[in-house]
Amino acid sequence: MPLDLGLDGAHVVVTGASGGIGLEITRLFADQGAKVTAHYNTNSTTLQPLLSHYGPQKVQALQADLVDEAAVAKLFQEATSTFGVVHIIILNHAIVSSVKEPLWKISLERWKNTIDVNLNSCFIVAKEYLTRLEVAPAAVKDMASVLIIGSTAGKYGKAGDSDYAASKSALMYGFVLTLKNEIVKISPKARVNSIAPGWVVTPMVQESLKNPDVVYTALATVAMKKIGLPQDIAPQVVLLSSPKVSGHITGQVLSIEGGMEGRLLNKPEDIQV
Predict the structure, then answer these.
(1) How far apart are the first and last CA of the chain?
(2) Which of 34, 54, 96, 125 has the fewest CB neighbours in a 10 Å radius?
(3) Tens of pLDDT, residues 200-246
(4) Is there a contact between 196 and 157 (Cβ–Cβ < 8 Å)?
């Protein structure tokens, strides 16, 4: 007998839904009977198979630049006009630079852009969601959940990507731990959590994973000696968003990284004894 997660008919907004993890999250929510607004910024091509499979009654794709408050307000207005009030938001979008540089070589422009896209946009989206949630019916408030996709970079740091690591850490800890205490003023049952994946095979990192040195460094501190897949992440997102099976879980960061123990800082050839 399938496990009932209590998500049938819920309206879920998934940001960054056109990426590898976002696509799988969207698919699994739709399979659970949810109505999914799949957000994208620049390209919706990868979403087309899902839109065709589930149809407009289950999944809709909407574009928005999430660093723009007006665009986010429009996104929620359009989403609500089709699927009703939003019950759950999954903040999945993020960028990471393809250029790996130590902090003292990162330009202020790059730093500001990463913080804007990864952190400030989550504030804007969450604020819009919570403003609408405050006046939503009780049944919607009881299902309210904010789930943020963090990263092991936010837990262990990531050399060459200090901007990305800082943005993820801010979300996973300061943002989650504060908002979980504030959202209950809107609804006592509302929850805020984060999931922190390790390396996952997605279009965002495919080029990097072609480098054997990168793969070795990624796996050297991972007990299971493998890189994750979107299918490893998405089920936990759906489970943690479920008020029925995770209704007493809030303020938590769930790491999904195959038993990672920090970062490999030095190889044998780097150490002189």
Answers:
(1) 59
(2) 54
(3) 998 878 788 888 888 998 899 999 999 999 999 999 999 999 999 99
(4) no
Please write the tens of the pLDDT for every residue from 155-209: 999 999 999 999 999 999 999 999 999 999 999 999 999 999 999 998 878 788 8
| β-strand pairing of 59-63 with 253-256 | unpaired
What is the DSSP pairing of strand 88-91 with strand 145-149?
parallel
- What are the residues whose beta carbons fall under 8 Å from the beta carbon of 93, sequence distance 6 or more? 15, 16, 19, 22, 39, 41, 66, 117, 118, 121
157: tokens are: 């740091």
Nearest Cα neighbor of 130 from 65, 176, 186 is 186
Structure tokens at 3: 């496990």
Nearest to 204 by CA among 261, 268, 153, 141: 153
pLDDT confidence tier of residue 107, bands split at 50, 70 and 90: very high
Distance CA 236, CA 212 (A): 29
What is residue 260's three-state secondary structure? strand
DSSP calls for 235-256: HHHHHHH-TTTSTT--S-EEEE
The CA distance from 21 to 73, in Å, is 24
Query: Against a cut of 0.85, is the pTM above it?
Result: yes
